[in-house]
């Protein structure tokens, strides 16, 4: 191992410099927000607001509160919403793929769901909507 004149190892020296800010170190950063996707998703979510919300402390409406829904099990996300038996039994976990399928036609994706909405037919709109829901409902 390389030694500095005062007996410090090379690694110790680099780590010391990194701690005081002289050597850049890798840090984790949140993914940058895509402003265009957020704007398109917010516009698409305007229809969803009739039944849903994305606020952390908000109560369920006609549909469940969607805060934190991404990554949760379908039919189990909200402790207070009365999900259909079909939704509870669906076995789905809300990720990009399942949300895309469900939002394209809820009653086709989960026959018996309470979500009586025809679906979002445009794939780009669904993608933006999913992006928005993920960003706004992250715990």
Structure, briefly:
With 139 residues, this protein is mainly alpha-helical. The radius of gyration is 23 Å and the shape is globular.
Task: Please give a handful of descriptors for the protein shown.
single chain, about 140 residues, mainly alpha, 2 domains, globular
Provide an overview of this structure:
The chain is mainly α. It has 2 domains: 1-30, no CATH class; 31-136, Orthogonal Bundle (Cytochrome Bc1 Complex, Chain D, domain 2), CATH 1.10.760. It contains 6 helices and no strands. The protein has helices at 10-19, 35-48, 85-89, 96-104, 106-109, 123-136. Helix 2 crosses helix 6 (123-136) and helix 4 (96-104) crosses helix 6 (123-136). The chain is globular. The two termini are 45 Å apart.
Give the SSE map.
Elements: H1 10-19, H2 35-48, H3 85-89, H4 96-104, H5 106-109, H6 123-136
Helix pairs in contact: 2-6, 4-6
Low-confidence stretches: 1-5, 8-29
Distance between the termini: 45 Å
Tally the beta strands. 0
How many H/I helices?
Answer: 6
Radius of gyration: 23 Å
> What is CATH's topology name of the largest domain?
Cytochrome Bc1 Complex, Chain D, domain 2
- Helix and strand element order: HHHHHH
- What's the CATH class of the largest domain, please? Mainly Alpha
Strand content: under 5%
Derived from helix and strand composition plus strand pairing, the structural class reads mainly alpha
How many domain regions?
2
Fraction in helix:
40-55%
In CATH, the architecture of the largest domain is Orthogonal Bundle
The biggest sheet, with number of strands, parallel, antiparallel or mixed sense and barrel status, is: none
Mean pLDDT: 84
Shape: globular
Find the CATH superfamily of the largest domain.
Cytochrome c-like domain
């Amino acid at each position: 191992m390389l030694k500095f004149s005062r007996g410090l190892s090379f690694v110790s020296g680099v780590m010391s410099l990194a701690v005081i800010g002289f050597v850049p170190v890798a840090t984790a950063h949140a993914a940058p927000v895509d402003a265009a996707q957020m704007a398109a998703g917010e516009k698409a979510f305007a229809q969803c607001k009739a039944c849903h919300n994305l606020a952390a402390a908000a109560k369920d409406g006609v549909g469940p509160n969607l805060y934190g829904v991404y990554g949760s099990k379908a039919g189990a996300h909200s402790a207070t919403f009365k999900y259909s038996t079909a939704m509870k039994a669906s076995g789905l976990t809300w990720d990009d793929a399942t949300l895309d399928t469900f939002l394209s036609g809820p009653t086709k994706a989960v026959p018996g769901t309470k979500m009586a909405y025809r679906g979002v037919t445009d794939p780009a709109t669904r993608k933006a909507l999913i992006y928005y829901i993920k960003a706004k409902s992250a715990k």
